[in-house]
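hey
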């Protein structure tokens, strides 16, 4: 997914989805901290909506990234 701010959209969603699929929030938070560089985390999303026009699933990414970070970025 192209993001002008460098957010790894698929990577963030993958870890978020795995957290629920495997019911392992601590493990997902660990993966987020270790495997997603700060510059690519959901918290970097500027809600510019550029990626949404190109999303084949029509996901409102700008609405989801703050939710993803709130869940995975929690200590």
């Amino acid at each position: 997914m192209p993001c002008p701010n460098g957010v790894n959209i698929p990577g963030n969603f993958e870890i978020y989805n795995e957290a629920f699929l495997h019911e392992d929030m601590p493990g997902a938070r660990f993966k987020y901290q270790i495997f997603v560089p700060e510059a690519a985390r959901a918290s970097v999303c500027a809600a510019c909506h550029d990626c949404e026009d190109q999303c084949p699933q029509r996901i409102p990414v700008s609405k989801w990234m703050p939710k993803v970070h709130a869940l995975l970025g929690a200590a």
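The chain has a mean pLDDT of 94. The radius of gyration is 12 Å.
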